[in-house]
Fold each of these.
Amino acid sequence: MGAQFLIVTVFLALASSLAFASDPSPLQDFCVAVDDPKDALFVNGKFCKNPMLATAEDFFRKGLDIAGNTSNKVGSNVTQVNVAQIPGLNTLGVSLARVDYAPYGLNPPHTHPRATEILTVLEGTLYVGFVTSNSDTGNRLITKVLNKGDVFVFPIGLIHFQFNTGHSNAVAIAALSSQNPGVITIANSVFGSNPPISDDVLTKAFQVEKNVVDYLQAQFWVFVNGKFCKNPMLLTAEISAEGTVYSRKTSNKVGSNVTQVNVAQIPGLNTLGVSLARVDYAPYGLNPPHTHPRATEILTVLEGTLYVGFGLIHFQFNTGHSNAVAIAALSSQNPGVITIANSVFGSNPPISDDVLTKAFQVEKNVVDYLQAQFWVNN
Ligand SMILES: *[C@@H]1O[C@H](CO)[C@@H](O)[C@H](O)[C@H]1NC(C)=O
Ligand SMILES: *[C@@H]1O[C@H](CO)[C@@H](O)[C@H](O)[C@H]1NC(C)=O
Ligand SMILES: *[C@@H]1O[C@H](CO)[C@@H](O)[C@H](O)[C@H]1NC(C)=O
């Protein structure tokens, strides 16, 4: 009995120290700190209402029986029910969405940076899939055909889609493990950002000529999943530091090479929530647009000049005539990497033409051309 009590006490002590060992997860894309409170907006979660003043209305929303209008270019519509619609969801780590699909409608490839999704089909037949992050085995495409009553999981941060393969409408309900999961629609984010990502970056990332990039950028992107980042910011980091001894081979199509130092290389990082990478860039080398499903990144330039950008999907481009080197620290022991070009156009097996032509609003030959490129697994 005494020993049992001791074990329980030790376990609780460990559990509570673990619970306080790291910072809380973000609840929005970013929250830049300010000194002067009058410039501030409290967004990491929301202010809390006095519990004595809470009413049932704070936890209530009606109208999810009403279908969204699917007469748009992709033929789908997502009705979100998150903390913006139900204030009572604040700090509770969960939300919901209703997704309507016209016949052959597509919820195009996208990721939720802050949530895992569990989807259930109420009506119709959906072809669904997600692509694993970059790894030795490549970007694996995992797919399934779902019928009424079927349930499927899309792990946090991974690129996924649903396509209505049937002649009639389909409806699904998605639950998400965040009060504000966020949505990054790949086509919109990469080819429809405001301002546009430069041609130098996109031609190298997708290994195609400028006219193909211009053609993709010229498409009209449907904001099916609500808003995404409208104020892309440019970061610059200039810190002098001693160069490291080893340089990596950057003689590949994108002209860059990432050397990862995560839990796979240092087992002691397990549970510690941090890792590192060294990035080498040839002149005009590009670390192509990618995301880390499980981490924020803080990057320091050791040498050279980099043009960098993000809308959560981010990249670095060496604009100089000489090599560049950077060190990136990441807030996960295993941040994962999803290179957009590889994941969308180079997955194994390939994502179907039906999905990609609709998602990128281009003809089959453009998709086939993009898929035919050789993707560097950086
Ligand atoms: C989704 O449906 C709502 C309600 O019918 C409509 O107001 C909205 O414009 C639709 N969104 C898209 C992207 O079609
Ligand atoms: C759906 O949207 C289309 C295009 O915006 C519009 O013409 C149509 O009237 C809408 N349908 C309904 C039922 O609101
Ligand atoms: C990165 O550099 C290492 C060491 O030079 C090399 O073995 C590897 O093939 C390179 N990776 C790429 C993607 O070029």
Amino acid sequence: MRYVGVLMGVGILACWLGVLEGQGKFSWMWYDHFDEIDDHMRTVNADNCQSKSREELVLRADTVSQLPVYNQQLDRIWYPNRTALIHLHHMALNRAFFYSYILQKMNDSQSFYIQPNWLYMYMSAAADVNANPYGINGSAFYFDKDCHYPNWYETVPFNNTLPLFGPKAWRHDDYQDQDNYLREPTRQAVMVADLGAGRGMNYTHSQFKMNPWYTKWLPDLRGDLDSLMKFTYNIGIKYSNVTGKFINDDFVASPFFGPSSPSALTKDERMLPVMFTQPYFDCGRSNKWIVSAVSPVVDYMPRYSNWTHLRRQR
Ligand SMILES: *[C@@H]1O[C@H](CO)[C@@H](O)[C@H](O)[C@H]1NC(C)=O
Ligand SMILES: *[C@@H]1O[C@H](CO)[C@@H](O)[C@H](O)[C@H]1NC(C)=O
Ligand SMILES: *[C@@H]1O[C@H](CO)[C@@H](O)[C@H](O)[C@H]1NC(C)=O
Ligand SMILES: *[C@@H]1O[C@H](CO)[C@@H](O)[C@H](O)[C@H]1NC(C)=O
Ligand SMILES: *[C@@H]1O[C@H](CO)[C@@H](O)[C@H](O)[C@H]1NC(C)=O
Ligand SMILES: *[C@@H]1O[C@H](CO)[C@@H](O)[C@H](O)[C@H]1NC(C)=O
Ligand SMILES: *[C@@H]1O[C@H](CO)[C@@H](O)[C@H](O)[C@H]1NC(C)=O
């Protein structure tokens, strides 16, 4: 009985919207989920997104189907049209591994000045976009509140943090640039900016509308997963300071903590190293509907203490 009631409810709603919207593409088509999503997407644009509510800037989580799952990649059939999503998943994981490694490697006061600085992060984010002309249109690295130790900001003393820092790159349409005489987008122009700079840009704040990626991992308020295994990875590197010659002929192992690596049996999706956001409107930046793959970076926090404190995803 209840099932019938629900069906009727949907039917009535559909008719009502159908009258308002002139139905689907053809008059005999029902107003369906596609039209619903399409209308939602059309109501938001670069000019009006500032005044929209948070709910209006996201689409339903099931809008994009068959999102890649880290520990099911080998035992599920993935459609060929998921290739770009799987690549996106791996790129997020790749960057998370790299930053976890390099930030933990550069962990003493001598290496403070050779840590990735703002320019490095800007270029790295731009490279993610430029290296993937057909798959990825944006890349960013966000530090949680008071987690970035700037080695590039001379007025901030050693061992002090910046409140927020979020270098974000997105593909820019350069068809109007002066040197682009063909007047066609070249897919070679990228805009990069610090998302945390300026008033009203506190991306950790619950009122900030463009950060569905934030709540996937932070804030870490609950302790129920604190016994989650800390995943240690070990890589061997042969260092060289002269062309064609290694300092040591043996691999020098350096262990580091990185994103989690759950077994195929793990069902709890909080254990996954990469999560996907709902589609959201990237207001004021790329001004497009986007889906983000998000992966956590593990770092010493606080740094430069005589005790090893790790800060990881929840
Ligand atoms: C992806 O491919 C599957 C199988 O061919 C198809 O059912 C599905 O509609 C496709 N999805 C999209 C978004 O094109
Ligand atoms: C820095 O990391 C290395 C391993 O990567 C470790 O041996 C060393 O103790 C760490 N130093 C500090 C100051 O934490
Ligand atoms: C990336 O941006 C280009 C140019 O704006 C667009 O043609 C393409 O569809 C976008 N790709 C994705 C995966 O969003
Ligand atoms: C950002 O918002 C968070 C959460 O409300 C708050 O704790 C933090 O102090 C704010 N940071 C800045 C720089 O305003
Ligand atoms: C390379 O490293 C080795 C071992 O640390 C050192 O003896 C040598 O002087 C270095 N060579 C150069 C060119 O810096
Ligand atoms: C850096 O700050 C942390 C946290 O305040 C402190 O524990 C540590 O001793 C400081 N390290 C140095 C080298 O000043
Ligand atoms: C850490 O330990 C070293 C060597 O034991 C000591 O010289 C230094 O003062 C200590 N630093 C802090 C911040 O306690």
Amino acid sequence: MSLNAERSYKMKLRDVENAFKYRRIPYPKRSVELIALLAISCTFFLFMHTNKLNSRLKEMEVKLQPSEFSALGLTGNHISGHDAGGKHDDINTLHGTFQYLKSTGQLRHLTTTQLNNTPRAQVDTLFFNRITKTGSEKMMELLKILGKRHNFEARRDVEGFYEVVNMHDAYAKNFIRTEVINCTKANSYTKHVAFLDFDLLDEPWPIYINMVRDPIERLVSWFYYVRAPWHFAERKEMFGDAIVLPSIDWLKKDFNRCIEERDPECVYEQMEMGNLGDHRRQSLYLCGQNMAVCMPFNSHEAMQRAKKNVEEHYAVVGTWEDTNITLSVLEGYIPRFFSGAKDEYYAVKKSLGNVNRNTYRPSLSDKARAVLSQNLTREIELYQFIRHRLYKQYIALKLEEDPKLRD
Ligand SMILES: *[C@@H]1O[C@H](CO)[C@@H](O)[C@H](O)[C@H]1NC(C)=O
Ligand SMILES: *[C@@H]1O[C@H](CO)[C@@H](O)[C@H](O)[C@H]1NC(C)=O
Ligand SMILES: *[C@@H]1O[C@H](CO)[C@@H](O)[C@H](O)[C@H]1NC(C)=O
């Protein structure tokens, strides 16, 4: 700023000051009272607000401090991330499940034995009937690593042009005999296939595991997965000319618009029997092979049957959305195959994280999410049921480590 400019700036400032000094504005008396009243109420509201903020802060301190959390093996960050909206009794969180079990008196009697299906297995085979788009490739990589550590053979199905998710009984029996239980040493077997009832087929039960994922996230994931360039490249390499490249317009589709425009690809009709190909039914993999019951989309009966199978026949159904809890539960309930899983996982996390990951994935709009949640109610309920069970299994482990948590 030059000297001249500075001077004129100062002059201007003075002019403004003077204007304030000498300009007397006569206020009517009423207005003065009004202003006073306003000032008082402002002070009062500010006081109220500060008070509210203060108690909110206190509340948050309480939330972040209880020893329960550290005993449950959670970090502060994890808690605030999940429980910060004041959802004290939301049973879809670990903390909410803990509070629920405590307030209903179940905490005192909860044991891992009640929740452990592993001892019911009749062969030394871990059967992972992996659900599509739940990060199962990552689990398969982990199984390979654990196989070396625990001396079991990590196997999978032969990759085919179609996934045989549904099997009639004779096919299923042959499949189990020749591929799943044909191994004498400890082993794991992985395949995209709907739940097989080994009792019905008169075959011995393996140790069942699976992974789930938020049903809406799964749909988004699938939508962009089938459009990913590497998905085509891989299939082209494997199946050659049988793979027909789709149109550019199709490849460029956006999921949010697909839903808004009611594009047939993005309509999820209730109880419909078709569209098996886009794997919209996570429940199918847990419900089983009875198509009349398990195929109708978002049906109550399919959900109930899936819940029953999970409860009675699965050792663990986990989710990468709760990686640490899932790995701890796998370690605790299936130690023969999974002890040390957490260490192994974190030792190679970087490379595991990238298996089959689609880096091109626009985010879902709130509007599209709202539309979808209306049509996926049972799928969502099943998913939440599974998470609740996983948390219960985890809490039971922690209770046995630290009995003081029971009171
Ligand atoms: C079991 O069957 C699979 C698939 O047919 C085969 O690859 C594997 O070698 C068999 N294992 C044994 C131990 O026979
Ligand atoms: C939701 O389900 C209803 C009833 O089947 C159907 O009419 C509607 O098109 C569906 N909406 C979406 C976005 O899938
Ligand atoms: C999960 O476990 C790892 C390794 O023990 C730890 O570094 C990480 O903070 C844990 N994450 C959460 C969310 O608790």
